[in-house]
User: Fold these one by one.
Assistant:
Number 1:
Amino acid sequence: MRNKGILMALFILALFSASSLSYMPLYALGAVAGLCYYGTKRALSNLAVSRRLSVEKAYIGQEVLVSVEVNNQTRFPLGWLSLQAENLANFQVPDPVAKAGVMGAKGLMALNYKLIGICRGFYHLGGLRISGGDPLGFVEESLSWADRGHGLTIYPRITRLADLPLPRPQPFGGIRTNQRAYEDPSCLGGIRDYQPGDSLRRVHWKASANRGKLQVKEFTPTISAECLILLNAGEAEYTSGHWAALGELGVETAASLLVHFASRNLAVGLASSGADPLSPDVDGFFFPPADGKGQAEAILTFLARVNVASSKDFAEIVSIYGRKVRWGTNLYLITPGWTDRMHMMVRNLKTQGKVPVALLLNPDEFTREAAAVCAGVFGVKRDRLEGGIHLDRYR
């Protein structure tokens, strides 16, 4: 009680007073103090608290407004109310304490505070410390409000890659065009009668047998390439203690490539051997190449949560998902090193018409074998001045 000194002084005066009337103020104040104590505790324990975020996904350094709505469900008013956000290791909270004035009976009040994410991931917001007191200042009480499962996804850091010498996409992909300059041999558009000058490689032998005359294939003309980013997040590929540095570098590289391709309306996908803490039973992740804002957001959300995993070998990921994409797709392999098994898988995919590009997180792992089968080999480094990524072309 804030005013317990006043009550104590009145009690001492009443002891030395000859008049019984001196006890009346003491009794009155005691009754008021007891009512405030009971009413304040009951009001605080019956507060209805809800929390809402301005966004559920944000970039590193972006301010996120957290709105907390408090409803006094009792008929006892509160003289003041304050909320203190829990300290979180991966967030900055510029002003963790939000205060408000009188909250009437059955009143509703909104308090706000801000969060700033400092590293990628999916994080719960933690609990709140709620404090309040009666209007007369007799009682001050506090209680803890547990987290109700609210989460915030922080995307990886993005580096602009517009000026980097990445290999140009092949003129095949998913965007239709009326120009006949390019036809995607993996996308059959129909069949027609054979005409003089048609290549025998375009003959559809099964349709020809059914119709009794030669039929040739017609392919869908396209002008845009598909891109598949393959992120190596296998525990065996990273030596002890290197995932925190090289792994984060790989995730940022994948996110930057994704944004680079998506901003050019290219169909982009992702395959990874990493683990998602929200989907612990999934062994390997694959997003088939597609265009659109929804595709980019889904992949960025996964990259925000991805972690090192010990399940599937990256070479197997390359082999399985590299075969699922169409002819002419650029394969961007983000990996700390180059292994013999990976080399074999990439060489097989190259013979199938895929275009592999290696991005090595450890520049010391550059090998002639990688250069022999890849359209380009890059070393990925951290930019010490700006904190982003930098690519050095080896071939």
Number 2:
Amino acid sequence: MTCSVASGVAVAVALWAFRPDSSVLVRMRLEPFVDAGVGTPPAAALALVASLGFVFVIRSVPTQIAALACGAVGAFAIHLRRQARARRDAAALRSETARVLRAWSADLRAGVPLDIGARASVESASDVWAALRIAEAPDIEEALRSIAVRRGADGLVDAAAACHLAQQTGAPLAATLDRVAEAIQADVDLEREVSVEAAPARATGRLMAMLPAVGIALGMLLGVNPLGVLVGTAAGVTCLVLGLGLSCLGVLWIERVVDGVDPSC
């Protein structure tokens, strides 16, 4: 029982280590975006390392296997959480891109110069827009392309092309920015609708994966001690590993199905 609790603590510590990254520190002028933030080691790796550490402490082979399985499941859960956060960040950046382009277009229509309007439109935006915040007129296109490599900012490729055409030919840019912003906003609305429809499927898959843990907890409350069997005997560990593996495969299958219809993935 003590070894099982220790394995659970290891996974809990790894989950705690997975916390939002600090703001990205941009250390470039107009070069392609490079994530210069210095963060903690990947939480999934911490979960596996923690479980490996308990392997050297625990003498029972079945319990060692159970600890490794719990660490692998913890790493898988952290990976899913990281993917969900990446989807949220991409959706937020896409919405912010539409707002920035609309504000920039409004400034251009008011007679504000190209570079001043670009810098003004991102004054209150996130650090992703650092390149555009310091760009001069000849470098606006390159700044837009450097930001467009980020997931969720791909619409800036069209804005960069329009900016290049405007600078080379003198064509009006405001109307084009409005159209690009409208297209991006349409994608945002579609993604939001699909995400709302896909949320129950994701939640159902994860709930079904958690039901065996609920059953074990009920067994412990009834005094049956199923956990001792699962981590202390060869047959129990075999059932535990197979059950965890099938649960993870089920969740992964549902995620793949939902990602197939989610335009943000």
